[in-house]
Specification:
With about 700 residues, this protein is an alpha+beta fold. About 25% of the residues lie in helices and about 15% in strands. Strands 2, 3, 4, 5, 6, 7, 8, 9, 10 and 11 form a 10-stranded antiparallel β-sheet that branches. Strands 17-14-13-18-19-20 form a 6-stranded parallel β-sheet, with helices on both faces. β19, α16 and β20 form a beta-alpha-beta unit. α5 packs parallel to α10 and α12 runs antiparallel to α13. The protein is globular and about 90 Å long. The chain starts with a helix and ends in a 12-residue tail after the last helix.
């Protein structure tokens, strides 16, 4: 019997006016839309490519005034300072003197959802930094993934259209778990490497402060002698890389949709300034072709085992904006905003971004004068012949052309000035083609590299993510086709995903890549050099009859180390402690949840308020913390109650002390220095992924 849904799709295609060949807006038939026109396979994109320009321009102008992508954001001011002069490989002034602090503004963002979507969705995160240097503004426009979904910018509208809410019903918001995205992925294998990152815990960061950043593309450094060096940029958070798990990420969307935005704002207001180290991977020009992938391919990384990351400076964010719209919303980033000493490569995705960003700002910010908005103004002097246009804020005098004599020749071109920007000279030749270089063809080795570099718990989370995402896909053929693509990455991965989504597991393939793992890709190997509880959010469950003395002692010890500790009770106001004193409550249990905290502490009497509803909510709070791998501390009578809530195999019975086998669950009869030290260590470790499943 025919599949009714397939019949419906066939009928739709037959009636669809788009069923004929693809054309431009002028009706010109197009025979290729996957590669922009370039000079040679690896050459720069040509401006005469009217199809590429029309496609990108139309895409850039689709939404007014919200950003088409990266609409949901948060920002902060700070500074950058180099560790030492980088003159050996770049003449960029802001990378020379360790005593000079360059002001910065950083905007973090999600990609798919609109401004009103939630922070903790599964998505790529933008990590864009504007350096207000003495030579002009430099924008390092990156993401929290080192790779992107596509190799050529002409495909960007296709990818974003696929990942955005489906056009017929505008569903889902801020999510990639739907048919059109996975249809695109299953037909476009170059997406697979970034898809692996998207299905990993990297896509649900605990905090912007605990998130890596990457420049994605290969750029060039250029030194004073004009020698070029290929460079990739890395931001490494001082606090280490930490993520949520999918279950808590989803609940957090309802409990606090501003979770990441609030975290960044609150920690800066509290004086706990987030910090990142800027590192670079440097490749001499003569080594450009020494890898088994192409440096111009934005879907590839350079494994750190091949080219180590060299730390060159640090960035600190120490001030929140005064007005979200004027600053965070109006900030305009552009990959082509570079300064002397930093140049481009012929990466076809980067070439497209260098066109697209400026084009987008023109429509989003109402004209060409957006650089005059305070957040976008450089600290370097501006002298141009640009005039008029929407929102012109300057009153110009004199001439507006060059060359001139009536204006004294000003502003004059800086002929011979070593401070002037000069593009690196390189030979460019080749046939005018719409074709991708064969060096871009391997779409499976690096996704396999990512998979084989993961810890076991990371692999479990990736499989669970694929099952969730593809389980939301209604088209069975898309599910099956995606599994076929995953089978080209790894048989174990593809089989585990297939078994969870009702697809026949694939046959083992002999040509599946088996790369040597890169430990640097695992979150497990990207922790802080010195783990700390600073800025960690810790919930202390209290109620009438609680031992407030022990609770306060541990709270004070943790707060002294920079933790944010809150007393959570069944209701706001105060609770009456066991000694008859009143203890102030920070938050009421119905207004919060375990997913908003990094750890939970149970003082004696914490889970025994006498109110079944309140005790039930408190016990669920604890069990959620357990399921999400968080540190749990229990004292006195709370230890026995905790033992009833958790799996029996967590505990070892030994007399009356019941020592726990899980180091992240810390128990003791009374609060003492040993307990506090052990609990502090457990919180600093962030999560424990080795726990038995919760069955109660």
């Amino acid at each position: 019997m025919a599949d009714p849904k397939q019949q419906q799709r066939d009928a739709f295609r037959a009636a669809d006016p788009a069923g004929g060949p693809l054309t431009t807006d002028q009706g010109v038939v197009v025979d290729h839309t996957d590669d922009s026109l370039r000079a040679g396979d690896r050459g720069p994109t040509l401006m005469e490519d009217f199809h590429f320009r029309e496609k990108i321009t139309r895409f850039d102008h689709e939404r007014i005034p919200e950003r088409v992508v990266h609409a949901r954001g948060a920002g902060a001011y700070g500074y950058f300072e180099p560790y030492a002069s980088c003159a050996e490989f770049t003449k960029a002034a802001f990378l020379q003197d360790p005593s000079v602090r360059t002001p910065v503004f950083v905007r973090f963002s999600t990609v798919q959802g609109p401004r009103g979507s939630a922070d903790t969705v599964r998505d790529v995160r933008g990590f864009a930094t504007k350096f207000y240097t003495s030579e002009g503004n430099y924008d390092l426009v990156g993401n929290n993934f080192p790779v992107f979904f596509i190799q050529d910018g002409i495909k960007f509208p296709d990818f974003v259209h696929a990942v955005k809410p489906e056009p017929h019903n505008e569903i889902p918001t801020g999510a990639s778990a739907h048919d059109t995205l996975w249809d695109f992925v299953s037909l476009q294998p170059e997406t697979l490497h970034t898809i692996m990152w998207l299905m990993s815990d990297r896509a649900i960061p605990r905090s912007y402060r605990m998130m890596q950043g990457f420049g994605v593309h290969t750029f060039r450094f250029v030194n004073a002698e004009g020698r070029g060096t290929f460079v990739k940029f890395h931001w490494k958070p001082k606090l280490g890389v930490h993520s949520l798990v999918w279950d808590e990420a989803q609940e957090t969307q309802g409990r606090d949709p501003d979770f990441n935005r609030r975290d960044l704002w609150d920690t800066i207001e509290a004086g706990d300034f987030p910090e990142w180290e800027l590192g670079v991977q440097l490749v001499p020009e003569e080594d450009e072709h020494s890898f088994d992938f192409d440096l111009l391919d934005a879907t590839k990384i350079i494994p750190e085992e091949l080219v180590p990351v060299r730390p060159i400076g640090r960035m600190v964010l120490d001030r929140n904006p005064d007005n979200f719209f004027a600053e965070t919303e109006q900030v305009a980033f552009h990959t082509a905003n570079v300064v002397p000493g930093i140049d481009f490569t012929n990466d076809p995705l980067l070439q497209a971004r260098n066109f697209s960003y400026l084009d987008t700002q023109l429509i989003r910010l109402g004209g060409p004068n957006f650089a005059q908005i305070p957040i976008n103004r450089p600290v370097a002097p501006v002298r141009t012949n640009q005039r008029d246009g929407y929102h012109q804020g300057k009153i110009h005098r004199g001439t507006n052309y060059s060359p001139n004599s009536l204006g004294g020749g000003c502003p004059a071109v800086a002929t011979g000035d070593p401070a002037a920007y000069r593009h690196l000279m390189e030979r460019v030749d080749g046939a005018k083609v719409r074709r991708r270089s064969p060096s871009f063809d391997d779409h499976y080795t690096q996704p396999a590299l990512f998979w084989h570099s993961m810890a076991d718990w990371e692999k479990r989370h990736i499989v669970d993510a694929f099952r969730f995402e593809l389980g939301k896909v209604a088209a069975k053929e898309v599910r099956a086709r995606t599994v076929e693509q995953l089978a080209l990455v790894d048989h174990e991965l593809a089989t585990a995903v297939a078994e969870g989504i009702g697809v026949t597991p694939p046959q083992q393939r002999a040509d599946t890549p088996r790369p040597t793992p890169s430990p640097a890709l695992s979150i497990a190997n990207n922790q802080a050099d010195t783990p700390s509880v600073s800025t960690r959010q810790i919930a202390v469950l209290v109620c009438d009859g609680v031992d407030a003395g022990q609770a306060s002692a541990v709270r004070t010890a943790l707060a002294d180390q920079g933790a944010v500790v809150e007393f959570i009770a069944p209701q706001d106001g105060t609770v009456t402690a066991a000694d008859g004193t009143d203890t102030e409550v920070d938050r009421a249990l119905p207004t919060v949840a375990s997913v908003l905290y990094d750890a939970v502490l149970l003082p004696p009497g914490a889970l025994d308020s006498g109110d079944p509803a309140s005790d039930g909510a408190a016990r669920r709070f604890v069990q959620d913390a357990y399921r999400h791998g968080k540190a749990i501390g229990a004292l006195g009578s709370a230890v026995e109650v905790l033992a009833e809530l958790l799996p029996a195999e967590v505990w070892e019975t030994s007399g009356d002390s019941r020592p726990v086998t899980d180091r992240s669950i810390v128990t003791c009869g009374t609060a003492n220095a040993d307990f506090t030290a052990a609990f502090t260590e457990a919180v600093a470790a962030h999560r424990d992924w080795s726990r038995p499943p919760l069955t109660r």
